[in-house]
Amino acid sequence: MRGFVGEVGPGALLLRVFYALVIVISGIAETAAGSAADEFSSLVDDIWQFDMEQSPLYATSVGDHRYNDRLPLVSSANRAQRNAAKNAFLDRLDKIARDDLSANDRNSYDILHRQIKDSLAEFEFGSYFMPITQRSGFHISFPELPKDVPLNTLSDYENYIARLNGFGEYADGHIGLMRDGIGADRILPAIALEGWEQSVDAQITEDPESNLLFEPFQEFPAGIPEGEHERLQAAAREAISTSVVPAYRRFREFMAQEYVPRARDSVGISAIPGGREFYRHRVRKFTTLDLTPEEVHQTGLAEVERIRNEMDEIIHQVGFEGDFADFTKHLREDPKFYADSKEALLKDVSLVLKQVDGQLPILFGRLPRMPYGLREVPEYIAPRTTAAYYQRPTGDGSKAGFFYMNTYNLKSRPLYTIEALSLHEAVPGHHLQIALQQEIEALPNFRRYSGFTAFSEGWALYAERLGLELGFYEDPYSDFGRLTMEIWRACRLVVDTGIHYMGWTRQQAIDYLHSNSALSLHNIRAEVDRYITWPGQALAYKIGELKIRELRQQAEATLGEQFDVRAFHDVVLGGGAVPLDVLEANVDAWVESCLQ
Q1: Whole domain around residue 152: which residue ranges?
Q2: Do residue 70 and residue 187 come from a single domain?
Q3: Which of 286, 339, 354, 366 is most buried by a 10 A CB count?
Q4: Predicted confidence (pLDDT) per residue in 250-296, tens digit
Q5: Cβ–Cβ under 8 Å, residues 79 and 18
Q6: Is the dihedral of CA 498, 501, 506, 507 positive or negative?
Q7: How many helices (H) and strands (E) does the chain have?
């Protein structure tokens, strides 16, 4: 989850007025009398309002529909303006007497302080100059707009068309930002841009009605008067033809003629000016702990060795004659481990998910009200993205959470990883944790709808292991798949630090993953390219999982027969996604209360 020089037009004017308002608010708040709690509550509200206006797509996703007709303003000047506003917010926060706050507000104070400081550091390192990756960015997410916004009323459709018409400015803003990034020596590696054309070309349609963004106009909901259908369809065709498609053409031309030819040959972020310091910041940001790249690398090596020993035991258990490399080759090549159609794959995933649903009360006292669904990864990004991912529910409860399964290249989607993958992405992993967090009304909005990767991904990896307690992984091959998923995350500690801090090549990273996991080569290449474009993020999974396991082991040892796993999980999830040091303090307080 940053002046004004060169800005023109009504959008820029709006930002200037709003920024001036922020400064006025800041000045008033600094001089106004009131309790620390009142001052903190006022600051939290001001920051939330600022975030909603600056990020209208995010606002829509959390259920604030005041800006449903807008797209974010994107430029280097806008980023500098946001940064200045966050500095002003930080000044206000630092003047609040933290010790006078309640325990819950102190937690929120510390979390907010960390989030602002991380954002300010990201600005100083210029990470905003690289707003896309091989699997994400405005050009990839915008075609998903029909799935992400309300489309039930005439007003909803008018807002949607307004966003289609605004896409040209939105895309040009990103082009300008990335062009500035070239000048600032903040540009993506060439190897990670291979195949970028597919996600762009899919949106350049001659017939606007064949564009993904026209889909809501193929069939209207009951709330749209029939007499409005033709007008709305014409407006949508016009917006797609004059705004969306030309913008994608401009972006394609920019990528082909300016950006890709200047992409850097290096793969590690340490190759850019200040890159080693930037990566050390990224390690602390994504792990939420005071760790060095060297410490993370060594932790990864130790975890890979431990998990490899467990995998070797399973190879012996099934009576396979050959070593680890022979066994993983067998898994990659034997057709029995793969579905013969995407329908069969999705059916297997659905069965696992439904089986897990029925077991959840064994381990949890509180479950989310919001359901989740299963979708295929869109075709236009499937070849370049990972095996699966999760999309959170909307904050207003109008759209469920979704587990996206990649059905491209079925030979790279082994059935023996389905149980672990499903537990990670849906329940008891991402959906259970995130949906619960959004339903905790006692949390301020910035905690309900944001979080920390080390917690969220650490929890999801921990959730894979919970399958052992729920009766899954009875098939040794499925258990090997669980360990394959776990060693993959352990390998990330080695590979990410290797690429970005220790000078590894892309091929070294691929070879390391290939020799220590049963992942397909297609998945391995896609994953390595993801690590290259997203420095540090991959460290969060294993570091977070190790901390949660450590806290559970300590609680079990201290409480003995008093330990209640359902209560432990409710405590871990009860504060939403928090930094790992905050999580540790929360669990310690719970253990202490159990002993009294």
Answers
A1: 131-266
A2: no
A3: 286
A4: 999 999 999 999 999 999 999 999 999 999 999 999 999 999 999 99
A5: no
A6: negative
A7: 26, 3
